[in-house]
Every structure is written in structure tokens, then in C-alpha cells.
Amino acid sequence: MSARESGLEDTGIQISEATVSDFFALLKPRVMALAVFTAFVGLMVAPGVMNPVIAVIAIGAIAVGAGAAGALNMWYDADIDALMSRTSKRPVPSGRVTPGEALGFGLVLSVLSVMTLGVLVGWLAAALLAFTIFFYVVVYTMWLKRSTPQNIVIGGAAGALPPVIGWAAATGTVGIESLILFLIIFLWTPPHFWALALFKIGDYAAAGIPMMPNVAGQASTRKQIFVYSLILAPIGVLPWAFGFASGFYGIVSAALGAGFIWHAWKLLVDKRVEGWEMKRAKALFAYSIFYLFAIFAVLLADTIVLRAVMSAGN
């Protein structure tokens, strides 16, 4: 029976037409997957052996918390999302999910994820998750994003916290190792998003978002991307320098960092072909995704192998 046939339309009650896939899209699954992966690496790199059931609960709660932040971001940013080609088909601006549904969904998941992590895993990890959600939604989305070209620089802290949460879930502390992982993601975020902003500059201009290329210009942005790549590359090697990764990781991370610098350099100076800037920006954006995944994947594999060798030796 339709809403009209049942008489619900006449009562003023709005019947949601959202599907499960629409609510799943609210979670920003790609961003959530990155948060889950880096949190898992943070948990695995941490010393000691965590109960597998508790580890699964921890990662699940972090995933739900990351998704909750994404839903609240989509609720608040629906007006500007509607103006950009990259985001106009998201559930809220497209009308598939109402703003109230997105807000309620995000708030419920936020409370559920934090309380689950606190009660079943540890309150330090839960507090860090709560702070991450708050920072992403209130500090970044509501304040920084629309007010300063440094939005992604400061706001990147939210995306860099998952490995710290994973470490805290495993150990109940925040170690220097987890802060190094935080620093890698934190320094990776600006060149990653500024590369995107270079070839989506029209979208950000239409939405009135002060991304770096729109405010400082494309030439200045390319220079800043290159500077960040020079800083990021040696920071990526720190897990080996601080002794919680092997020489193999050190070699691979150094090579990956060199690749990042090369792409940033080509973006800065290569003017040989028409449309070079957009092509180089897209190439750097793609490489940056590969870089972060590879750095954490190699660190994870390195940790597993080292522990297997140590166990065999005992």
C-alpha cells in the first residue's frame, strides 16, 4: 500500500524513501575504510597480544565512529555538496536522505561507537574516538572548512588519529610510535587534498570553499605541495629509525617517499604539454593514495613477519 493510499500523506508525515545503500553512502565508505585500515595497523604494531574478539570489537567501533563523522559531515555540508560535481549526487543533496535522517543517523552512531569502545575495550580509546568525531565535525566541517585555506592542514588531524586510537585500544596508552603514525598521515593530508583541489578548483570556487588553490593561487599551491613532500618523505621512514620496523620497511618507505617527491616536483616544474598541471595533479593525487596505503601495508606486513621470526626463535 502506498503512502497516499494509507492516508499518511494527508497527515503531514514524511515517509523516507532512503535505501540501505543510501545510508551506507552516508558513512563515506572510502574514508571509513582508510580510517579502519590505519587503526588496524596501529593496533597490530602496538606491543603485546590483544584478545582477538576485543580487537574485532575495537576495529568495528572505530569503523562505526568514522562512518558517524562522515554522516554528520554530509548533513552539515549538504548545501555546498549540492554545488559541486564531485559531491552533488551524495544522499542528502540529491534528496534521497533528508537532513534530519542524516543528523539522527550520525548522532546515534557516534554515541553507539564511543560507548561500545569505552565499555568493551577502554575509555582512553573511546575518548580519542569521541575527540576525533568532534574535531572532524565541529572544528573542521563547521568552522575551518569554510573559513580558512588552512582548513585541511589543521583539520587533517582528525584523519590522522585512527592509528593512535588503535594503539590506545591495544595498550591503554598513547606511545611515541602511534604519534609517528599520526604524523605521517597528518603531513600526507595537505598535498593529497591540494592535488585534488587543483583539478577541482572550479567546484570549490562555486561552493565558496577557500581551498588553497582558490585563495593563494595554483603556483603557490604547487610550491607548498612540494615542500610538504620534502617533509613527508623522511617522516615516513621514522618507524624504522625508532626501531619498530625493520630495514626492509626503511628501504621501501624511503623509495615511496622519493616517488612522492618526484610526483610533486613534476607538478611544480613540468610545463611541456597542454593541460600539464591537471594531469600532474591527478597523477600526484593517485600516487598519494597508493603511498599511504603502501606505507601502512608494508608496516603491517613487516610487523607480522618480525613477530613470526621472534616466535620461531623462542
Number of helical segments? 16
Q: Briefly, what CATH class of the largest domain?
A: Mainly Alpha
Number of domains: 2
CATH architectural designation of the largest domain: Orthogonal Bundle
Strand content: under 5%
**How many whole angstroms does the radius of gyration measure?**
21 Å
Outline:
flat
Query: Can you give the helix content as a percent range?
Result: over 70%
Question: How would you explain this protein's 3D organization?
Answer:
With 314 residues, the protein is mainly α. The protein folds into two domains: 157 residues, UbiA prenyltransferase (Tetracycline Repressor, domain 2), CATH 1.10.357; 133 residues, Four Helix Bundle (Hemerythrin (Met), subunit A) (Up-down Bundle), CATH 1.20.120. Helices cover 76% and strands 0% of the residues. It is built from 16 helices and no strands. α3 runs parallel beside α16, α4 runs antiparallel to α6 and α7 packs antiparallel against α8. The longest helix is centred in the C-terminal third of the chain and has 38 residues. The chain starts with a helix and ends with a helix. The N terminus is likely disordered.
In a nutshell, what does this entry contain?
This protein is mainly alpha-helical.
Keywords:
314 residues; mainly alpha; Tetracycline Repressor, domain 2; Four Helix Bundle (Hemerythrin (Met), subunit A); 16 helices; 76% helix; flat; disordered N terminus
